[in-house]
Amino acid sequence: MKTLTYDHSRADLFPMVILNFVMLMLSIFLLYSGMYMDFSLSLFGQATSVIMIICGSIGVLFCGYTFFYVFHRLVFPQGALIINDRGIINLTNVLGSKEVIPFEMMEVAQLEKIHGKLYIGIKVYNEEEYLDNLPIFNRILQEINKKNFGTSIISMSIPTDSREGIPQIVKIINERIEITKVRKEMNW
Fold first, then answer.
1. Between the CA of residue 95 and those of 60, 72, 107, 143, 157, what are the distances in Å?
2. Helix axes 10-36, 48-75, angle to 10 degrees
3. Cβ-contact 111, 118 below 8 angstroms
4. Using one digit for the tens of pLDDT, what is the confidence trace for 36-73?
5. Residue 97 main-chain phi, psi, to 5 deg
6. I want to staple 112 with a disulfide (CB 3.0 to 4.6 A). Which of 9, 121, 129, 185 is the partner?
7. Could you tell me if 169 and 6 are in contact, meaning their C-beta atoms sit under 8 angstroms apart?
8. Dist CA 73 CA 10 (whole Å)
């Protein structure tokens, strides 16, 4: 089977890099203000600088990570969604990993709509087994997505260049899941 690769366009990533850079600079300013400026807000009193340091630190960590992640994707475009003969490599968002999600674990792929945006949702036979293989941070975020948005346990955003072919991508994934089921039955 042919390996299919879908990438995010640089035109979509560039505004995200700019926005993440602005948020990173604001977080650095907040951290700097908490450490070196001497003022207090009436609502917080003397704890103003401590609160600013905590919020600035969290912002620098989060915004710094997202800035460098998106910047790396902008400079070094690579396959955001890779469908090969063994499974799927999902790098469409921060929750994705370089690990192959094997077709043997997948039950069905389907379209999901979250806040007006289309996603590919994949139901797996054993969600706990899949979640146990994830890092703890990704596991928590996947469970939050499923609980709050009602998505499948694997939810992939689609690179915008392939928006016209989203049903086609779902069809390809489902075909490969069926081929894997047939191969598995033949080996038994």
1. 19, 16, 20, 11, 10
2. 160
3. yes
4. 887 777 776 777 788 889 999 999 999 999 899 889 88
5. -145, 165
6. 121
7. yes
8. 8
